[in-house]
Write a structure and sequence with these properties.
By secondary structure, the chain is α+β, with helices and mostly antiparallel strands. Helix content is about 20%, strand content about 30%. The protein is built from two helices and six strands.
């Protein structure tokens, strides 16, 4: 969703991330396969279901294989 971990952490701290419908407050919160992550980013809301994990950090294309987009992105 974002390029840097610090940007992702900032989204969590500012209340733009929900895990299974609950607003997340800690950037280090663990997620598991099957969790639904909702991210409010710019004017778009994305709802993603976690389908897997990588052992190592990879590029954006490999990351896309690790989640399923639930519905279309919604613009506010």
């Amino acid at each position: 969703m974002v390029k840097a971990r610090t940007s992702a952490a900032e989204l969590v701290v500012t209340g733009h991330v929900r895990i299974n419908g609950t607003r997340e407050k800690s950037p280090g919160h663990a997620i598991k396969i099957g969790d639904v992550v909702t991210v409010a980013l710019d004017r778009t809301v994305r709802v993603l279901k976690v389908t897997g994990f990588n052992e190592r950090r990879g590029d954006a294309a490999s990351a896309r294989a690790l989640y399923e987009e639930l519905g279309d992105a919604k613009r506010n």
